Amino acid sequence: MRSYIVNSVRSPKAKTKAALLQVMSMLDMEVYHHENRNLNRIKEMQPSYLFTSLLYDPLKSSLGLFMMEVLNKCIREEEENEKMFDFISQKLQSLDRIEKVPADFLLNFLLELSLLLGFAPHGKFSEATNYFDLQEGNFVSDISIHPLVLSPPVSQNLSSLLKKNSTEIPAAERRKLLEALLQYYQLHVPNFSFPKSLKVLDEIFRS
Q1: Of the candidates 26, 28, 21, the residue with the CA atom closest to the CA atom of residue 44
Q2: Could you tell me where the beta strands, DSSP code E, fall in 50-115?
């Protein structure tokens, strides 16, 4: 995570155009970097990937903004993280290229990101362990310890996603699982809060 200042991007004669700095833009940049500064300057920038649909399709752009908001709440360090960079880059490009967005796109995004962040759900769903413990991150049988557990139906849907089963999850159940995963993030990421863009997504899905 780095912060940069860019001068006069809205000037007609500006070398750097404001359009390049939209949320989700992927850029190649040459920068002036000083370790003791919070804000550095960009010398040159150009697109590293040109989106064809992500920035213009209402559903795709809303999904992308949700992803960016989650990432912004989760990533704190300045050190390079090639695996994380490749993951974000691949997700944005795949969202841009696919014709029809899979219904479980965001759920899979959150699960894959949790793996990179080090708190991926684990364990096995069964008749004996049919509750998912949000605090411990695994499937359990005893729910008397604390109330932070998912019901068996939601736990089973989570298990299906983890196993990458092809069973389609109904829309209402998918929404419950999305909220459950965001609650899971709240427990495992310091200062994490529900993304504001979730309300925008709700409106789009409703229409």
Answers
A1: 28
A2: none
Burial of 65 (0-12, 13-18, 19+ CB in 10 A): middle
Number of Cβ within a 10 Å radius of residue 158: 22
Token couple for 175 = 């929404």
Q: Which fold has domain 51-206?
A: de novo design (two linked rop proteins) (1.20.1440)
- Chain-centre distance of CA 101, in angstroms? 15
pLDDT digits (tens, 9 = 90+) for 57-93: 999 999 999 999 999 999 988 788 999 999 999 999 9
DSSP designation for 163: T
Residues pairing with 42 in the sheet: 31
- Which tokens is 111 given? 């699960």
Binned at pLDDT 50, 70 and 90, residue 204 comes out as confident
Residue 47 DSSP class = E
Using CA atoms, how far apart are residues 20 and 128, in angstroms rounded to an integer? Answer: 53
Report the candidate in 23, 86, 71, 91 with the shortest Cα–Cα distance to residue 185.
71
Domain ranges of the chain: 1-50, 51-206
Residue 132 CA to residue 154 CA, distance in Å, equals 8
Sequence-distant (≥ 6) Cβ neighbours of residue 144 within 8 angstroms: none
Rg over alpha carbons for the chain, rounded to the nearest Å, is 20
Tokens in use for 48? Answer: 């590293």
